[in-house]
Amino acid sequence: MNLARLLRKRAEDGRPVRVGVIGAGKFSSMFLAQARTTPGMHLLALADLDEGRARDALERTGWDVDAQVTRDFDDARRTGKTAITADAFALIAAKPDVVVDITGNPAAAIRHCLKAFDNGCHVVNVTVEADALAGALLAERARKAGVVYSLAYGDQPALVCEMVDWAEACGFRVVAAGKGTKHLPVFHTSTPETVWTYFGITPENAKASGMNPQMFNSFVDGTKSAIEMTAISNSTGLKAPRDGLAFPPCGADDLPLTLRPRTHGGVLEEAGLVEVVSSLEYDGRPVHRDLRWGVYVVFEAASSDARGTYTRDCFRDYQMIRDPSGRYSAMYRSHHLVGMEVGISIAAAALRGEATGTPEHFHSDVAATAKKALKPGDVLDGEGGYCAYGKIMRAEDSLARGALPLGLAHNIKVTRPVAQGAVLTWDDVAIAEDDAVRFRREMERKFGNAGAARTAAE
After folding, report:
1. DSSP state, 290?
2. Full-model pTM
3. Distances from the Cα of 60 to the Cαs of 66, 304, 414, in angstroms?
């Protein structure tokens, strides 16, 4: 990689990469702390519905807000200061080189992405919920506008996409790829009231740290894992497990043993899947050398005949982790640094015109699944709430069942009974035809036949 050198050159030339960030929460703050010390990167503007929150985020992460903050975009561009605003569209109209959406709201993120494309801005989309909802169409719109649409480095999907790309560019066959998390089957029914017990922190400490219980519950109940694996699937072509994520207990040393096809003694229904490994055994004991915060890829020699034995011998000779047969090996990274690493995506987009992961098609989907028995009149409360969690499905299966995308399951009324554990459908709810729904439906029309065609080919 040569991004640091390219950034230094931009600094020397007085042409820093200008960045506009929408959203001033935890992820954003982690980036702000690093942007302040990154040569060749200028935080042109920071937008949040609460300008005071934006100012506080800058101050908290080491910025001299009295000297470095303005409310005038022209002044910011001329002097190198940072403009703060409550208007995300005004930030986009200022035409930073790269717009970073960190709103967490899929409908808002889609609007911001489309406006950024119209203004010739590259986009790094941290709101992976929007990518899981309609990423293939967002990527197509970006290509037509001649800009980059990218997943966010530091978040696990982009890191996994990089590992898959590395493995395939080395000539390996990818067997499985994904991340680690803390999970037990009971977590699927977790609510904002139970989240801290499962997460492993006291409610008092969570409140003191400003941790949002519903947002963090989306990590606990499996929703965020489904969303992130969907983004990886749609960017790499790896498939979703037919029955959803299995969350097998697995430590770093057992990756090639556990994550191989069932026909060879592993847990996978077939090779070429996304999967999430749990840091807990089924009885609640901690997994040895767990990957709760990490990412991985399992691979094998692309040639499975006698000519592939040399590569397998190299796995052995260089003492790589491998299964007993020696056929499967793995690479992993124990941690991801979240917003502290998103500058990699920003620099890659602006300086090399490259994305750190971008959807190639609509391979997988996230379906809203009932946490409890739902009755007519119940109102779905979105990701991490009391009513539904997200389950990954292959896109062709989701469309065939008419599954309700989890990204749209917020503030809509249930119209007929839905059993606990059942996938909700469009017919189970009363949903208004808004911009997000129309964009999703357009994505289904444009890309929905690809999964069925792939299934037929297989």
Report:
1. B
2. 0.96
3. 13, 54, 42
Are 317 and 357 in contact by the 8 Å Cβ rule? The answer is: no
Contacts for 157 with CB less than 8 Å, ≥ 6 apart: 128, 131, 151, 228, 231, 232, 235, 357
Rounded Cα–Cα distance for residues 58 and 49 (Å): 15
With tokens 């010739």, the residue in question is: 120
Rounded to the nearest 10 degrees, what angle do helices 343-352 and 3-12 cross at? Answer: 70
Residues 456 and 404 sit within 8 Å (Cβ to Cβ): no
CATH number of the structural domain 364-450 = 3.90.1210.10
CB atoms within 10 A of CB 141: 19
Angle at 301 between CA 297 and CA 304, to 5 degrees: 135
- Please report which helix (H) or strand (E) contains residue 413, including its range: strand 410-414
Map residue 170 onto helix, strand or coil.
coil
Domain ranges of the chain: 3-152+341-352, 157-183+222-335, 364-450
Q: Would you give the end-to-end CA distance of the chain in angstroms? A: 37
CB atoms within 10 A of CB 46: 30
Nearest to 358 by CA among 208, 102, 143: 143
pLDDT at 451: 54
> What pLDDT is stored for residue 208 in this prediction?
83
| E-assigned strand segments in 90-229 | 98-101, 122-125, 149-151, 172-181
In which residue ranges of the chain is pLDDT below 50?
Answer: none
Q: What is the pLDDT of residue 454?
A: 55
CATH of domain 3-152+341-352: 3.40.50.720
* Contact indicator for 184, 280 with CB cutoff of 8 Å: yes
